């Protein structure tokens, strides 16, 4: 670094301000030398320079992995340059935003150009009819950049919102096989996202968000121009107008893109003055405000009060209202539009000046926060070191001075926002329109007798107990020490809650359950605001807590789940497996694989939120038992698949990929086998996961990274990491309790077994009960090839001919052993019946079915198709091993008993019921056991 501006002090300042800069200098000194040699860091970072540098990185690309590597190395260099100049204040805000946006444009367009050519070589060139000439012409992909990317205002560490479009429908020509244009561009789009978003050993380029496309997550990844135009004309919503204000063609055919933008302009900018934009923006701001309160984002300089989003809303309100008439407002850059608003006399000069100064300050602060670790964040730091770093970057002597300046800007922005957009009703205030008695009861302003009489008249079945529960809350230490705002919101919320409870059959009992939640959110009153503002959510809360103490406990443990109550339609319509996968992928898109703590927290919330939907649907009666188990099992499978990806990516980043015999790097060659309830698609709300880990790699080979380890060690660590992610207690609890005792040799066996060793053990050393367990096993996550190989082994083992008499005796002996250790003691059997373990219970049916599977699969190999009890019973009836009546009788008894266990779980009750319960089912099961296993 020969430049005179690169003194030791300058370098020390940069290193002190940014971990990212320090780590890049330590890990990639040769690349830093190269980037400085190409252009001094003292020189502005221009789009022309970035384009020239990309061509140098691009010159060595001949394969898709080469492309991925080149993009990521280019990112490392560009990020270093942009963050260095920004944090040392060698660049102003315009340069930082402009260079970050230009870098994104170049990466997207560069990756697209290479991938488009490669896709054309595989599938041919897509053709369509030119609307003017009528000739057949090649079709390009047009990429629209939304949000800050579209406005040339990208952050130094930001995700990018994209929409993919192509001009005309048609099909490809000249390839090995033809594709219709939409399929071609969807595949191209998927590869483009991977090129930018996928985390490799070299990192990633940009997190890509496609949710702004028509129909959101469920929409096609790429649409034709006419399909886009039709969608926005017929179904375009207010928030999509807001998003489209900044839309810009960032990659692909610019001329075709401009044609598209012209067709969409009437949707964005109405010919008349459109004051309805105020209301839609107000609604969006209210929604964001609820999110801020719910997630505690008050220290978020983008979303919090007086933050960047409020400045954007002010500016874009005027664009949407007057942009159709005042074409000067049809621009994208916020600072440019602010100038136009002053010129058009739509805002006073002093307001424009204060908004401009606040925007520049907040955006510079945002870049300071992100540049420290090259992470997307808008949250103010809480530790002293990072506060000192931010103050230094922003040019303040200490954090207090920086914070004081920030608070001044935020106050001014909030005031202008309130004057222009917000409503007087936005603040939660005023007394709710409820009977005064509810306020008096909560505040204990009437005598006990009057309160008991009132509660009783409103349907409270235990008024005395309810008054005591309210007194306990009022007198608690937490309530006594609440600050003024917290006490005010509690006093607003409690009368509303007491009135809402009159809508359920058991108000007193439900009150006790809901108070668990109230105690949990006393110091997080944003949740009370959520319930105050949303009567529908309040109704769902008291209804669900009335029916299930288990749900009440879940909400108290994780108040963030209250968000699920806002939409009754989705609450009672849990998503299918494909939608679950997409939902989880979108939620995890912005969390790096290496951020294990955040991954684990997000997975726990994902699981709890979706299990709440299943429980709510079961209580409402929209999901029968079999579907409940399906959904609970799908949730576990989707979680397991993601956990494998996270754990695998973490190990690969350290040690490289496990090698195969042919020298290639594998997908994962690893599989998770589900046993028991998971394998049998019979998960309950509190079920643990019986898992076995297998892999199909050569344990003698090693990985291909800089720090290679034996494949066997790699997969053992992979298994350990998966168990850690699943079972560790975090602030949100445990993801799943994991039981690995069914692996070969049990707790004394290896954590992860090769398929070859698994097959050998099953053939030579497994006990009968282990073959019984195999009847309910199936692959649930991991590499498809490995899971297919397991299924072949399972089929072969189950189809081995067996001595039926010896098999029967072994199964009976094991059943008696289990019953004596887990069932009800003989002296209490008249009082209690254990639905699972006692004679005539569920385990009798399971053992009976497992015996029949092992005894008859050799003659009827098709029996191995299923791993769940219900379909195994049906299959046994279809092949004639059981009579149709017996198969149906067992099935009905099994469903009856399992339904009871499910319902009791939602009531926090165990599997033990009265000794005289289910007499008919128990008699039938015992007669079938005697018929098949004894006689």
UniProtKB/TrEMBL annotation:
<dbReference type="Pfam" id="PF08335">
    <property type="entry name" value="GlnD_UR_UTase"/>
</dbReference>
<keyword id="KW-0067">ATP-binding</keyword>
<feature type="domain" description="Glutamate-ammonia ligase adenylyltransferase repeated">
    <location>
        <begin position="10"/>
        <end position="257"/>
    </location>
</feature>
<feature type="region of interest" description="Adenylyl transferase">
    <location>
        <begin position="434"/>
        <end position="935"/>
    </location>
</feature>
<dbReference type="GO" id="GO:0000820">
    <property type="term" value="P:regulation of glutamine family amino acid metabolic process"/>
</dbReference>
<dbReference type="GO" id="GO:0047388">
    <property type="term" value="F:[glutamine synthetase]-adenylyl-L-tyrosine phosphorylase activity"/>
</dbReference>
<protein>
    <recommendedName>
        <fullName>Bifunctional glutamine synthetase adenylyltransferase/adenylyl-removing enzyme</fullName>
        <ecNumber>2.7.7.89</ecNumber>
        <ecNumber>2.7.7.42</ecNumber>
    </recommendedName>
</protein>
<feature type="region of interest" description="Adenylyl removase">
    <location>
        <begin position="1"/>
        <end position="425"/>
    </location>
</feature>
<comment type="function">
    <text>Involved in the regulation of glutamine synthetase GlnA, a key enzyme in the process to assimilate ammonia. When cellular nitrogen levels are high, the C-terminal adenylyl transferase (AT) inactivates GlnA by covalent transfer of an adenylyl group from ATP to specific tyrosine residue of GlnA, thus reducing its activity. Conversely, when nitrogen levels are low, the N-terminal adenylyl removase (AR) activates GlnA by removing the adenylyl group by phosphorolysis, increasing its activity.</text>
</comment>
<keyword id="KW-0460">Magnesium</keyword>
<keyword id="KW-0436">Ligase</keyword>
<dbReference type="GO" id="GO:0016874">
    <property type="term" value="F:ligase activity"/>
</dbReference>
<dbReference type="Pfam" id="PF03710">
    <property type="entry name" value="GlnE"/>
</dbReference>
<dbReference type="InterPro" id="IPR005190">
    <property type="entry name" value="GlnE_rpt_dom"/>
</dbReference>
<feature type="domain" description="PII-uridylyltransferase/Glutamine-synthetase adenylyltransferase">
    <location>
        <begin position="830"/>
        <end position="903"/>
    </location>
</feature>
<dbReference type="InterPro" id="IPR023057">
    <property type="entry name" value="GlnE"/>
</dbReference>
<keyword id="KW-0808">Transferase</keyword>
<comment type="similarity">
    <text>Belongs to the GlnE family.</text>
</comment>
<keyword id="KW-0547">Nucleotide-binding</keyword>
<feature type="domain" description="Glutamate-ammonia ligase adenylyltransferase repeated">
    <location>
        <begin position="539"/>
        <end position="791"/>
    </location>
</feature>
<dbReference type="GO" id="GO:0005524">
    <property type="term" value="F:ATP binding"/>
</dbReference>
<dbReference type="GO" id="GO:0005829">
    <property type="term" value="C:cytosol"/>
</dbReference>
<keyword id="KW-0511">Multifunctional enzyme</keyword>
<dbReference type="GO" id="GO:0000287">
    <property type="term" value="F:magnesium ion binding"/>
</dbReference>
<dbReference type="InterPro" id="IPR013546">
    <property type="entry name" value="PII_UdlTrfase/GS_AdlTrfase"/>
</dbReference>
<keyword id="KW-0548">Nucleotidyltransferase</keyword>
<feature type="domain" description="PII-uridylyltransferase/Glutamine-synthetase adenylyltransferase">
    <location>
        <begin position="282"/>
        <end position="420"/>
    </location>
</feature>
<dbReference type="InterPro" id="IPR043519">
    <property type="entry name" value="NT_sf"/>
</dbReference>
<dbReference type="GO" id="GO:0008882">
    <property type="term" value="F:[glutamate-ammonia-ligase] adenylyltransferase activity"/>
</dbReference>
